[in-house]
């Protein structure tokens, strides 16, 4: 078990971690989440004795890392995959680590197989891709067959097969009773991998609870309601009826309505009472991403602004070549995140529409309802006063922690069993 008590780290005037207390227990994957610069890496470095706390303490199995005898046999970590002597081969790198800890050489070949690097084991690591480097870092973490494992962004740069492999590896390590502590910014991946979450913002603890509880606590369930596509006036009417009954109603990009604040039977009754036919009335739970955005929106330090392309308008205005099959295609509207469905204000300083409707309000609306503007809840002032033309290139799509099919058996072929 990892235990932090009152953990604090200051760098000069900057407090990176402030009075952090938590436990990471064995047997489950614990996700470590927080916005950029919130103190995750600093916390991990303190756990591993690479940074000294300004105050407080952190222990592994009750002992500070630096006092753990032959630590690599007990604690494995992937912090910075690039921290490898680039002139060495993957095998040489792992062999030198193994020798330092009295780990037999055959274990090196085992872990090279586990991470799927057998074929390139004798190649210099400075020619490795980002994903190959990550695999090598994971191999190093597994080398001592440790009971406690820390991974900082382990899927960074991995291909889909590698991401699936890491997900299964984390779960397997936890199922074996190990302590697995994983930081990631990929909410959809965390939703599939972690059972417990520790969330920090600006160095302070925001949440320490099971994933399910975290989503329930930081979002509201909602209903999706769809009226016949052929009769748009019915949708308008339903929006008004539900809004008058106290619901938060937001138009989804696909034409459905997202309704919070009313139970499904009530929505059904109201629709029936207003003589409105429904094509869909379905319950939905918010995603981990939505819940995370809701919780952390006030502690995000680094937000993107819209790319104004000052002085570059000519390039944007240049007519885009229109090939067959793309009539009317608009030039790309930018790569900066657009006014986000979850928590990002449309413009700095403007209120976040999500805050008005916890768990709801994702839709940018794409022009519906026309009177209120995109994403505006019915009967409420539209926080996005500017007209918005429709789906934008580069707009982030909401990620859902959709249930994914179990991995087919042969997908992990490149990796070998960890014989230990
Ligand atoms: N050695 C250092 N000297 C000064 N400031 C530092 C140092 N290390 C980290 N910081 C600062 O501490 C804060 C937390 O950084 P940290 O890297 O722990 O955040 P993080 O949550 O891991 O971020 P990210 O998600 O971007 O990796 C940041 O403001 C960072 O600039």
TrEMBL record:
Recorded superkingdom: Bacteria
Keyword tRNA processing: no
Pfam families the UniProt entry points to: ABC_tran
Alphabetic keyword roster: ATP-binding, Hydrolase, Nucleotide-binding, Transport
Keyword field contains Hydrolase: yes
Gene3D superfamilies registered for this protein in UniProt: P-loop containing nucleotide triphosphate hydrolases
Residue numbers spanned by region Disordered: 306-420
Single Gene Ontology MF annotation: hydrolase activity
Enzyme Commission number(s): 3.6.3.-
ABC transporter domain mapped to chain residues: 2-227
Compositionally biased region (Low complexity): 310-320, 327-359, 367-383, 391-409
Family of the protein in this entry: Belongs to the ABC transporter superfamily.
Protein name: ABC transporter ATP-binding protein YxlF
Lineage per the UniProt record: Bacteria, Bacillati, Actinomycetota, Actinomycetes, Kitasatosporales
């Amino acid at each position: 078990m990892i235990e932090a008590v009152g953990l604090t780290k200051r760098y000069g005037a900057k407090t990176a971690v402030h009075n952090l207390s938590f436990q990471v227990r064995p047997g489950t994957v614990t996700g470590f989440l927080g916005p950029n610069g919130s103190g995750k890496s600093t916390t991990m470095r303190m756990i591993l004795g690479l940074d000294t706390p300004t105050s407080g303490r952190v222990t592994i199995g009750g002992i500070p890392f630096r006092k753990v005898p032959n630590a690599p046999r007990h604690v494995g970590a992937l912090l910075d995959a690039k921290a490898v002597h680039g002139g060495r081969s993957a095998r040489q790198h792992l062999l030198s680590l193994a020798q330092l800890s009295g780990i037999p050489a055959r274990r090196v070949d085992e872990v090279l197989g586990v991470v799927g690097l057998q074929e390139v084991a004798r190649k210099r690591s400075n020619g490795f891709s980002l994903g190959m480097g990550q695999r090598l870092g994971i191999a190093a973490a597994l080398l001592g067959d440790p009971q406690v494992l820390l991974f900082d962004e382990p899927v960074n740069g991995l291909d889909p097969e590698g991401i699936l492999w890491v997900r299964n590896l984390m779960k397997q390590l936890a199922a074996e009773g190990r302590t697995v502590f994983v930081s990631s910014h990929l909410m959809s991946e965390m939703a599939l991998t972690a059972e417990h979450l520790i969330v920090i913002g600006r160095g302070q603890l925001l949440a320490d609870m099971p994933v399910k509880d975290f989503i329930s606590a930081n979002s509201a369930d909602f209903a999706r309601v769809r009226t016949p596509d052929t009769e748009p006036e019915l949708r308008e009417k339903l929006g008004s009826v539900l809004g008058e009954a106290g619901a938060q109603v937001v138009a989804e990009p696909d034409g459905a309505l997202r309704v919070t604040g009313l139970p499904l039977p009530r929505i059904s009754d109201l629709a029936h009472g207003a003589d409105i036919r429904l094509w869909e009335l379905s319950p939905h739970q918010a995603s981990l991403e939505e819940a995370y955005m809701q919780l952390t929106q006030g502690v995000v330090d680094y937000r993107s602004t819209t790319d104004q392309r000052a002085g570059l308008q000519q390039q944007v205005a240049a007519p885009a070549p229109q090939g067959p099959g793309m009539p009317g295609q608009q030039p790309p509207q930018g790569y900066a995140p657009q006014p986000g469905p979850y928590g990002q204000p449309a413009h700095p300083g403007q209120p976040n529409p999500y805050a008005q409707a916890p768990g709801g309000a994702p839709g940018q609306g794409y022009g519906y309802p026309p009177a209120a503007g995109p994403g505006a809840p019915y009967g409420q002032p539209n926080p996005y006063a500017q007209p918005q033309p429709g789906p934008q290139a580069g707009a982030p799509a909401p990620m859902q922690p959709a249930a994914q099919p179990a991995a087919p058996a042969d997908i992990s072929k490149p990796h070998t069993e960890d014989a230990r």
